[in-house]
Amino acid sequence: MFGDRGNRWHRLLLAWIGSAIVGAWSVALAMPPERVVSLAPNLTQTVLALGEGRKLVAVSDYCVLPPGRKDLPRVGGLVNPNLEAIAALRPDRVLLLTAHEEFLSKFSALGLPTEVFHYRSLNEIRESIREVGQVLGVARRADELVAAIEKKIAAVRSRVSQLPTRRVLVAVDVPPGAGQNRSVNIAGNGTLIEEMIRIAGGVNAYEGG
Fold first, then answer.
1. Cα(187)–Cα(45) distance, integer angstroms
2. In CATH, what number does 36-158 get?
3. What distance lies between CA 110 and its chain's CA centroid?
4. Are 123 and 131 in contact (CB under 8 A)?
5. Are the CB atoms for 31 and 83 separated by under 8 Å?
6. What is the rounded CA–CA span in Å between residue 149 and residue 17?
7. What distance lies between CA 155 and its chain's CA centroid?
């Protein structure tokens, strides 16, 4: 009888310990990260705009950095993140875009916590700024940044409201090389660039998707 009671207390003690470990792990994940790797220029600019640039330990090959931070390690781009270099930096958060989703399992296998964000439209940009702010522990600052962006957008709309509408064509990518047979990628409707054209008082001249 005493043995059964002892086993019962033993199991209960193990359950308490397990709960404590899980709770501590959850708290650790909830703590704002201190070592951040950003794998996209727009994510890096968001971190900097939120005043958290000091937390960056590495960025993508294409990120633009302010004076004093230009020596940060470069660890690849959208399609070729250097996983070994990133793991060696021991980040406690890696910021990714949806274009990186194919690498999520590899980051997970290396034990690297990741956050995936979407920047394909103005609404997604607003939400991603707020989400980055929450991850970094500066949610209020993120709300202020979104409000400032909204104010600037409203100012642009007001300024161009009385101007004639212009048809605009935006080439987002012109492959290098000579000749007239090169293909050119044009910003279509339903894109972020098309949203920006409309805010500026224009109309996308290219009606394709």
1. 23
2. 3.40.50.1980
3. 20
4. no
5. no
6. 47
7. 26
Helices and strands of the chain, counted as H and E runs: 7, 8
pTM: 0.79
Give the start-to-end residue ranges of the domains of the chain: 36-158, 163-204
**Six token digits for residue 137:** 């522990």
β-strand pairing of 171-173 with 185-186: antiparallel
Summarize pLDDT for 177-186 with one digit per residue, the tens. 655 666 778 8
- Which residues in 143-181 are b (16+ Cβ under 10 Å) and which e? eebbeeeeeeeeeeeeeeeeeeeeebebeeeeeeeeeee
How confident is the model at residue 21, as a pLDDT?
A: 47
Length in residues, the chain: 209
Closest to 192 in 3D by CA, of 170, 160, 159, 163 = 170
